[in-house]
Amino acid sequence: MTRHQKPAQQSAESRPAASSLGRLLLAAGVLACVGIVVLMIVDPWQPDDGKPSADGESRAATPQSKSSPDAAVAEPPIVPARPAVVPVPDPEAAREEAVVALQEEESRVVDELLTRFPDHPEAKGYREKFKTLKAKDDEDLRAGKQEDSDLNAARESVAQTRLRAGRIYQQQGLSWQAEKHWRRSAELAPKDTMCRLELGAMYRQKNRLSDALRIGEQLLEIEPDNALFHANNGALYVRLKRFDKARESARRAMELEPENEEYAELYESIEAQQ
Question: How many distinct structural domains can be found in the chain?
């Protein structure tokens, strides 16, 4: 063999040794991987998600770190809201305020009458009467003597002032102003008949028959056995061509006052139209 052939021969001789070493390293690597996998399976400190293992038992999950993005955020405790404090109304204070408001209302009505009709004797009389009543009410307020009866008396006073004011306006041909005062009077005095009689008469005069009948029904609610109220409603029913209701009202008026000839004539006229 020549000098140039020796390295090739040596390389060929070293190949089996290198190949054996490579196989040993590869086997060692495989064994290492298998060992890691075995440790991951049987390691008791392996974090578990709570799912049952192969033997059917479940390991408790290791608490996650607070810095973990998947960590559950604890909800703040629910603090019950405090109930709202509702102020207890003072009946005496409310009564005093109502009396004062009614006094102011009556004062405005009287001032308006005196402004529009300065020479009207009845308007001047209202002014003097109002001054006297207001002085008494002011004294009661200062002494703390306001009672429910005082409030009712204030309402009645304003209702009567409005009733008389409406009559003055009606005399002056201002029926729309009269209606305003009479309606307010009826609101303040639910059982009063005079303001409703004035309203009913005005509505009949203005041919507002439905409004007149509504007032007539209110009057009968207050005094169901009043023959005049039944007769007035009977005449309204005739004008509305509701003859059955007209006959019924006229008959009831005759029953309540059989000696009244006008009611008998009303009933006969209704019968003649059938």
Answer: 2
Find out whether 243 and 273 touch, Cβ atoms under 8 Å: yes
CB 263 within 8 A of CB 254: yes
Give the domain extent around 264.
193-274
Alpha-carbon distance of 158 to 129, in angstroms, equals: 12
pLDDT digits (tens, 9 = 90+) for 122-135: 766 666 665 665 55
Three-state secondary structure call for residue 46: coil
- In the 8-state DSSP scheme, what is residue 50? S
| Angle of helix 227-239 versus helix 209-222 axis, rounded to 10 | 160
Question: 58 forms bridges with which residues in the sheet?
Answer: 52
Residue 52: strand, helix, or coil: strand
Query: How many Å apart are CA 259 and CA 93, to the nearest integer?
Result: 54
91 closest CA partner among 83, 99, 103: 99
Are the beta carbons of 60 and 50 closer than 8 angstroms? yes
Residues 225 and 241 in one domain: yes
Q: Angle CA(226)–CA(228)–CA(231) in degrees, nearest 5?
A: 115
- Distance, in Å, from the CA atom of 6 to the CA atom of 17, rounded to the nearest integer, reads 18
Give the pLDDT confidence of 104-122 residue by residue, as tens digits: 999 899 889 888 888 877 7
242 and 165 share a domain?
no
Record the pTM: 0.62
